Amino acid sequence: MEKNKKLLIVIVTLIALIAGVSFFAFNEMRKNKEMTQLFAIEKEEMENEYSTFATQYDELQIQINNDSLREKLESEKLKTQRLLEELRQVKSSNANEIMRLKKELKTVRAVLRSYVMQIDSLNRINAALVKENTEVKSRYSAATKQINTLAAEKKNLNEKVSLAAQLDATNIKAQLLNKRGKNARRAKDVKKIAISFTIVKNITASTGNKTLYVRIAKPNNEILSKGDTRFSFENKEITYSIKKYIEYTGEEQHVTVYWDVEEFLPGGEYNVYLFADGNMIGQNSFEMK
User: Fold this and answer.
1) CA 135 to centroid of chain Cα atoms
2) Which of 114, 116, 47, 50 is nearest to 80 (CA)?
3) What are 227-232's contacts with CB under 8 Å, separation 24+?
4) With bands split at pLDDT 50, 70 and 90, how would you rate the model's confidence at 41?
5) Which of 68, 94, 229, 286 has the fewest CB atoms nearer than 10 Å to its CB?
6) Is 262 helix (H, G, I), strand (E, B) or coil?
7) For the residues of 163-231, what is the DSSP string, one character each?
8) pTM here?
9) For 85-128, how does the pLDDT look when each residue is reduced to its tens digit (9 = 90+)?
10) How confident is the model at residue 63 (pLDDT cuts 50, 70, 90)?
11) Which SS3 state, helix, strand or coil, does residue 266 take?
């Protein structure tokens, strides 16, 4: 009887021990399954983050022109892609590898953040430089425009001053004289043509010796001349009829020049042109019958 009682106790103890071990094993299996499911979810999230970081490195490379920085970004991108491939090959049950790659992910995140901040700073600096460059160009353009305006005004003023300094001839008249020095009534009786005019007062004109040129044009525009008589006007050599030297003082001055008629003069309208200092200073016409 005592033996049966002891046997029963042993059997009950074994059953309890087996039940306890089974419960512990079942509980561990449940925990391992839950951990594996948790690691699987975490692994998927990590894969998404690695993939996003690799894409961000591509986007950062597009934003910069610095070759050295672009190479660094490319290196970090390749490292991120390598870690992503390692993660994809790791089983969800491999807790050690998942934890290692999780730590690597933290490092990748920190490095990416530092590059984002660095590039953002560079972009702000570049934006400021572009703005400053635009402002400098604008100021340069405005200054150039102002200089051109001042140059045009100066040129216009110089032209006005130059124009104001030119001599001016008025009261240009022609008197046709016969051989007795009297007024000739007909063209065939004209022996001398007296051209008189007035050089007006001009305090801005240069004073001193002046050479006056008179051109007398016949009705057919042929210039009366004796020999090869030419002077420069507007970069050309043109014929003159009479040359006269005067001493100009800036005051009003009356001048008379004469043309001795030695050729046939047809009737019609004649034109008289006066020149001095490379400028035409007056003109008029007269009739010969």
Assistant:
1) 12
2) 50
3) 231/275, 232/278
4) confident
5) 68
6) coil
7) HHTS--EEEEEEEEE-TTSSBPSSGGG--EEEEEEEEPP-TTSPPEEEEEEEEEE-TTSPBP-SSS-EE
8) 0.48
9) 877 787 766 778 777 877 877 887 888 788 778 777 777 877 77
10) confident
11) coil
